[in-house]
Each structure stands twice: as C-alpha cells, then as structure tokens.
C-alpha cells in the first residue's frame, strides 16, 4: 500500500479513537494523546502487513493442518 495512504488511514483512525476517548472519557486529558499514538502506530503496522495478518489469523483448518503437519 502507498505509504502516504497508509499514514493517512493511521492518522484518521488514531484521531477518531482519541477524539472519542477525549469526549467520552473520564476527564483525564493526558489519556487521549497516548491512545492516539497507540492506535495510529498499530493501524499503520496492520495496514502495512495485512497479508501477513491475513495468513496468520486464517480460519481455513485444512491449510493449518498442511502447515503444522500431520
């Protein structure tokens, strides 16, 4: 995926979740920047390596048996 698009998606997700935490949180305003950093970084990693995530969490039992052995 294009790097700019990946970072744009990560920033959008991070800002959205941080905004929701700031709006509906318990009043601790130092929590929102931390939530933004965690969600933006995680989203960027997942989007960048979505093929690896898809194969890692695949639910096809036949494929898992072939990979893990008899």
Task: Describe this entry's structure for a reader.
The protein is an all-alpha fold and 70 residues long. The chain has one domain (3-68). Helices cover 79% and strands 0% of the residues. The protein contains four helices and no strands. It has helices at 3-24, 31-48, 50-56, 61-68. α1 runs antiparallel to α2. It starts with a helix and ends with a helix. The mean pLDDT is 83. The chain crosses the membrane at residues 7-25, 31-48. It holds the Pfam family DUF8153. Residues 23-67 form the DUF8153 domain. It comes from Halorubrum distributum JCM 13916. This is DUF8153 domain-containing protein.
In short:
The chain crosses the membrane at residues 7-25, 31-48. This protein is an all-alpha fold and 70 residues long. It has helices at residues 3-24, 31-48, 50-56, 61-68.
* Biggest β-sheet strands, sense, barrel: none
Query: What does the radius of gyration come to?
Result: 17 Å
Tally of discrete structural domains: 1
Number of helices: 4
Query: pLDDT below 50 for ≥5 consecutive residues: which ranges?
Result: none
- The helix-strand sequence is HHHH
Coarse morphology = elongated
Helix content: over 70%
What's the mean pLDDT score? 83
Our measurement of the CA-to-CA distance between the termini, rounded to an integer number of angstroms, reads 36 Å
Q: Strand tally, please? A: 0
Class inferred from helices and paired strands = mainly alpha
Strand content is: under 5%
């Amino acid at each position: 995926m294009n790097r700019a698009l990946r970072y744009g998606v990560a920033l959008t997700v991070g800002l959205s979740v941080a905004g929701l935490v700031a709006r509906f949180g318990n009043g601790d305003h130092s929590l929102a920047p931390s939530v933004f950093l965690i969600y933006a970084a995680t989203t960027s990693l997942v989007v960048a390596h979505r093929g690896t995530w898809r194969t890692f969490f695949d639910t096809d039992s036949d494929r898992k048996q072939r990979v893990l052995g008899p």
